[in-house]
Structure formats: structure tokens, C-alpha cells
Amino acid sequence: MKTAGEYLESLKSLNPKIFLGGRQVSLLDNPTTMTVVNANARVYELGCEPEFDDVMNTISPFTGNKISRNLNIATSTADLEKRMEMALLTSQMLGTCNYRCVGADTLNALAGVTWEMDRSLGTNYHDKFLAHLRYLQENDLAVSGAVTDAKGDRSKRPGQQEDPDVYVHMTKKTAEGIYVSGAKVSQSGAIGAHETIVIPTMGMKPGEEDFAVAFAVANGTPGITYICQYTPFTAERELVESKYLGNPLYGQRETSIMVFDNVFIPWERVFMCGETKYCGKLIARFAKTHRMNCGGACKVGFADLIIGATQLLAEYSGVQKAPHIVDKITDMIRISETARACSVAAALKGIEEPSGSGFYMPDDIFGNAAKLTVAEGFWDIMKWAGDIGGGLAVTMPSELELNNPETAPYVNKFLKTGANAEVRLRMAKFIQNWCAGLHGAGTWHGAGSPMAQKMALYALADLDKKKSLARSLAGLE
Ligand SMILES: Cc1cc2nc3c(=O)[nH]c(=O)nc-3n(C[C@H](O)[C@H](O)[C@H](O)COP(=O)(O)OP(=O)(O)OC[C@H]3O[C@@H](n4cnc5c(N)ncnc54)[C@H](O)[C@@H]3O)c2cc1C
After folding, report:
1. Among the atoms of ligand 1, which is closest to the Cα of residue 146?
2. For ligand 1, atom 39: residue with the closest CA
3. 397 and 299 both lie in a single domain
4. Is the distance from the beta carbon of residue 281 to the nearest atom of ligand 1 less than 6 Å?
5. Is 448 in the pocket of ligand 1 (CB under 6 A)?
6. What is the pLDDT of residues 35-84, one digit of tens each?
7. Does ligand 1 come within 6 angstroms of the Cβ of 137?
8. How many whole angstroms separate alpha carbon 125 and alpha carbon 270?
């Protein structure tokens, strides 16, 4: 198992080509890219803390050794439940992405699909997948997951796009491996991962074989370029010491466009190549696990932080006992605990899938309900935090005013309540980070835009059974 220090040391040999704000930057020298590194390091640290051992680690059925749960393939509902708890815990500890969630979920989706392909098609993807999984587990590597293609014009299929590169696809096949081009967008923490697992973004049809590719690629592989997001939070981090920011160490959920320019992937790292029939299953299984973890549990961890900060702000200004404040805090708790309950249910009602494989997937209805509840409810949680936090959450002066002898006495005098100005400003900044920033839209789209969950829920619900129940009780049958 890697320590945080060993993870940091391992990054020195990676050398990813990263652009941020229009210039090339070094992963370990830039304040924003370092937030990804810090978050990953903290996840490694959590894995070494005895208190969290049970949630963060498990024993691999493939190596027999202790591994990070981020690299585990679930083989029981207990595994699914712990996986969901890990998402919750890391969100509570980081206040940002744990950067290994998509990687873990793509691995779980691939385990079952490669197993199935080999049985039905006589391919050897599953053995290659397991060999690679053992390599990841034995070296305790950080793995990100690349699913979301640039997609171009949504009304056209991949092959109909003006530029085929808007979907990652194979450009050449040789005896040694395949070459791929394209781009995956919104890639959480890929810059700080040792490896990325790439899968198709959606189901593919006959004729779209070149787009039906899944593979593992190491950070720093020639032909890969990371173009990072740049936001007002990036600019602020460049301007001031991190202690003045809303999430000092771990910052925002940092993503990048991951560009593949004729990147060579050796055959031993290719887990799907042209099997269009299996793309739909692959993305559906990924969505199942990701909606339980990233959709439900992870955002509940974020909600815990927002609720805690909001309660503190209420106490600082002496309104915590007012009935409407108690009611609003309770509503925030109701939303987040409902999402958590859906995630727990998704895990506990999980089933072996594919049947006979030994691999487990969460319940689809509860997973979708978890993600949808949190996507809708997060806006309400933000609303109540903004309400209780008061205008100060957006009108606050900089904490730097406390270092200025001309403004410090005023700020201290006028912002002091039950807490001194520094404490109040710090907590208001923390709330600003959540309510006046990137998290609303991020929570909405992460793990799939809500329309996708609505379509899934509608398709999964057994409406015939519900109709029959109604007819029967109404005396119509
Ligand atoms: C913070 C964050 C982190 C993320 N991390 C990762 C990551 O690590 N790895 C990864 O692979 N992805 C990641 N994603 C991407 C995420 O999975 C996508 O944002 C999500 O699936 C939505 O896709 P999109 O962004 O392309 O939105 P779009 O697909 O452009 O959706 C925009 C709107 O168009 C609608 N729409 C889309 N297609 C159609 C259609 N055919 N017909 C009608 N309406 C349509 C949608 O419902 C939505 O209303 C991340 C996203 C966020 C916000």
C-alpha cells in the first residue's frame, strides 16, 4: 500500500503535458494542479489510517493481498456498501472530488463486460483485464476514468460527425496494438492519476466498431495532452495564499480535457476493440455504480459539510433557535439523508451481474433515485445555506482586510458577532465556495445529466405491475 509520501514521490516520474490558463504548467508546481495532488495524497493517507481501514481498504480476491478499495471489484453487497461509504467519507474529508471514483467504477463495469465477452465471443479480454487489475492493485496506483466524449453535434451518430475525433476512436490497428485519437472532456483529476481507464461514452451500433474501444493508458503516454479548466477560483488561487480560500487545500473539483492524438495502446491494455454490442452494457453498468457512488453518496458528504457550515453561521449570528432556521436545516438534512438512503439501498439490493460472474452491481432504480434526488436537492441545500448564511456569503470583504491596519479595526468591529470577524469571514468563504461557485452545475451533471436518470427510472419502473395493482384493488379485474 502506498503512503501519501510515496504517491507524491511517484508523481515525479510522470511528466504529464498540462495546459492551464493558456500556458503549459508543471503538475507539482502549479497551485491549482496541486489541489488535485493534495486530494489524491489525502486519499492515500486515509487508506493508511487504522480508523478508516475497513472503509478504505479490502482484500483483493485476485491477489489475496490488502488493496485500496478504489481498485476493488465488488463481489458482494457488503463490498458495494463499503464502496459507497468510501465515497461518502472521502467527500467529507476533502470537500472535493476524491479523483478515483470514475476509475473505480469503470474497472467494475469492465470486469463483468470482459467476462461476458470472453464467454460469448471467445475473446481474451477478461484475462488481460485481470492481469492489468493485478498490476494496478499490486502497485496501488491512482486510476481516473474517462467516459465523456466531446460528442460534437448530439443529433448525429459518431460516424456522422464532421470531425470523427469528437468521439475517441481507433485510427490504426497493428500487430502490437491500436492507435487512438479523440478527446474525453471533464476529466476529474486525470492529471494526478497514474493511469486512466477509457471506455465508450454510450452504446454503439454496427458500423461504429472504431468507436467501441476500451483501454488503460498511463499518465505521460506520448500523444496525451491535458487542458485544464480555468475558473474564477483558479484565478483567486493564483492571487492569494490558499488559507484565504473556501477550500484551502483541496480546492474545486478540477477537471481537464484529455486529448488523445494518435496514442499507441499495446494489446495487453486493450479490453474492447470493435464489440459494439457490448458498449451499451458497459456504459449501463458504469452508470449503475457511478450513480450510487458519485451521484448519491459523494454529494451527501458535500451536503454534510454545507449543513455543518450553515449551522455554524446560524450560531455565529445567534439565530440557530429560530423555528424557521431549524426547519431549513432540517430540510437540508432530509434531502441529503434521502439521497444517502437511496445509495445504501442501491448497495444492499445489489445483485450478481452478469449472472455467474461473481461480480456485483448496485440496484439500478435506487442508484438512479440517489443521483436524481441529490441533483435536484442540492440546489435546495444551496438555497438554504445562502438564506441562513445571509448576504455576507457573497458580499464579504477579503480576510486580507484583517492584515491591513486601516481596515482591520472596522472589519473586526462590524463583522464580530458570537464569533470574531476572522472566524465568521472564514466560514462565510467556505459557504461561498459551495453556494456561489461551481458545485451546483457540477452536481447536476456529474454522473450524467438528470434527464438520463429520469429516462432510466421511467424505463425500469414496472408500470404494468403498478397498473395491475391499481386495477385489482379498484375491482376492475
Ligand atoms: C464536476 C464534474 C466532473 C466530471 N468528471 C468526469 C470524469 O471524471 N470522467 C468523465 O468521463 N466524465 C466526467 N464528467 C462528465 C459528466 O459525466 C458529464 O458532464 C455528463 O455525463 C453530462 O454530459 P455533458 O457534460 O456532455 O452534457 P451534455 O450531454 O452536453 O448535456 C447538456 C444537456 O443536453 C441534453 N442532451 C444531451 N444529449 C442529448 C440528446 N441526444 N438529446 C436531447 N438532449 C440531450 C442533456 O440532457 C442536458 O440537458 C464530469 C462532469 C462534471 C460536471
Report:
1. 11
2. 154
3. yes
4. no
5. yes
6. 999 999 999 999 999 999 999 999 999 999 999 999 999 999 999 999 99
7. no
8. 7
206, 165 contact by CB (below 8 A): no
Kindly tell me if the per-residue pLDDT of 133 is higher than 80: yes
Q: Supply the CATH number for residue 237's domain.
A: 2.40.110.10
Cα–Cα distance between 143 and 101 in angstroms, integer? 8
Rounded to 5°, angle at Cα 322 from 317 and 325: 80
> Whose alpha carbon is nearest atom 16 of ligand 1?
446
Task: Indicate if 272 and 285 belong to the same structural domain.
Answer: no
Give the whole-angstrom CA distance, residue 76 versus residue 68: 16
Q: What is the pLDDT of residues 188-198, one digit of tens each?
A: 999 999 999 99
> Looking at residues 9-27, what average pLDDT do you find?
97
At 312-329, the pLDDT tens digits run: 999 999 999 999 999 999
Grid cell digits, residue 229: 479548466
Q: 225 alpha carbon to ligand 1 midpoint, in Å?
A: 21
pLDDT at 418 over 90: no
**What is the domain range of residue 134?**
4-276
Does ligand 1 lie within 6 Å of residue 102's CB atom?
yes
In a domain, 437, yes or no: yes
Number of compact structural domains in the chain: 2
The per-residue pLDDT of the chain, averaged, comes to 97
Residue 170: DSSP 8-state = E
Within this chain, do residues 317 and 405 fall inside the same structural domain, yes or no? yes
The string over 174-184, giving b where at least 16 C-beta atoms fall within 10 Å of a residue's C-beta and e elsewhere, is eeebbbbbbbb
